[in-house]
Amino acid sequence: MNWPKSVTIKEVGPRDGLQNTKSVLSTNDKINWINQLSQTGLSYIEITSFVHPKWIPMLADSLEVAKGISRVDGVTYAALVPNKRGLEKALDANVDEISVFISASETHNERNINKSISHTFPILQGVTQEAIASHKTVRGYISTVFGCPYEGKISISKVLHICEKLFEMGVYEISLGDTIGVATPKQVEQVLDTLLDYYSADSLAMHFHNTRGTALANVNASLISGISKFDSSIGGLGGCPYAPGASGNLATDDLLYMLEAMEIETGVNKNKIHRAALFIQEKTGEPLSSHDSKIVRNVLE
Ligand code: HMG
Ligand code: MG
């Protein structure tokens, strides 16, 4: 097999992880946690989102969090932004990178951001243009690429159309989201087979949720297809509140275990990730779903 020699892990725990917890963490705990993550060797952390606080109350303190963390050189600090109002705050906080998002499913897009896909494009275009003019890089997410909780299977032509629009706007990379964790390795291979006819592997990242336990298998299928950038969340925290059935992201600790064992470099220190996982578990009061953290917890307890 032709696996890549190194992989970039994009940690989305402070955003995707914390947007779906039962309890709301204090601003200080979020800041402490992100500061710990900055010392793990991760080169990319999505620290929060600047969405409407009524829609995602758990991240209502995004500005305080983004302004309160200690930045480490070499780490890219990103934030999810739905519109110009969110961008203003992200620029005020001076994050390094803006993530825009849209769904391949019309219904999920409506439920998630209250707009049709066609009405979302000009909004994202405005955000992207302004962010680039402010010297920020912009990443695009496409949700429900592998299936939608409302519409079921999503055709690849819809995904291709959105990719085209996002790249035209100026995003440098698209993260393909399996929002509700329905993807299988076969489907991943098929989707990537099509997309890689149009776009380079370097311009794509994968964003798996582990709802049905297929996330690592999907990572392996992606690696074999040539992808080397993966979004994950420490301990497997996460999920989209506007996608019924969505559960945690692919866990950073499980991903790291597999990549290390496969001798694929990440630059991330597993022990430090475990400590950060135990920290957030104590603060949320919810047992983490990742396999690796459970093992470490049993050893430590
Ligand atoms: P809306 O109600 O249609 O907004 O919500 P609007 O544009 O009509 O404005 C209504 C009011 O909200 C106005 O205030 C705006 O200023 C204000 P008023 O004038 O009435 O006082 N407003 C804002 N306030 C704060 N921050 C903002 C903002 N924008 C408008 N950014 C909106 C539209 C997009 C705001 C809303 O639907 C929203 O915030 N949705 C976010 C939902 C969300 O965060 N979902 C989870 C993230 S996506 C995900 O998890 C998937 C992903 O992980 C990939 C995967 O797994 O596949 C990325
Ligand atoms: Mg997600």
| Distance between the ends | 38 Å
Q: Radius of gyration from the CA trace?
A: 18 Å
Strand fraction equals 5-15%
Which CATH class?
Alpha Beta
Outline: globular
Q: Spell out which ligands are present.
A: 3-hydroxy-3-methylglutaryl-coenzyme A, magnesium ion
Largest sheet: 8 strands, parallel
The side-by-side strand order for the widest beta sheet comes to 1-8-7-6-5-4-3-2
Going by helix content, strand content and strand pairing, the class is alpha/beta
Instruction: Name the CATH superfamily classification.
Output: Aldolase class I
> How many DSSP H or I helices?
12
Helix content: 40-55%
What is the chains' assembly state? single chain
CATH fold title: TIM Barrel
Q: Could you list the spans in which at least 5 consecutive residues all have pLDDT below 50?
A: none
* Integer tally of domains: 1
What does this protein structure show overall?
This protein is of the alpha/beta class and about 300 residues long. The chain has one domain: Aldolase class I (TIM Barrel), CATH 3.20.20. The chain has 12 helices and 8 strands. The protein binds 3-hydroxy-3-methylglutaryl-coenzyme A and magnesium ion (MG). 3-hydroxy-3-methylglutaryl-coenzyme A binds next to helix 4, helix 5 and strand 5.
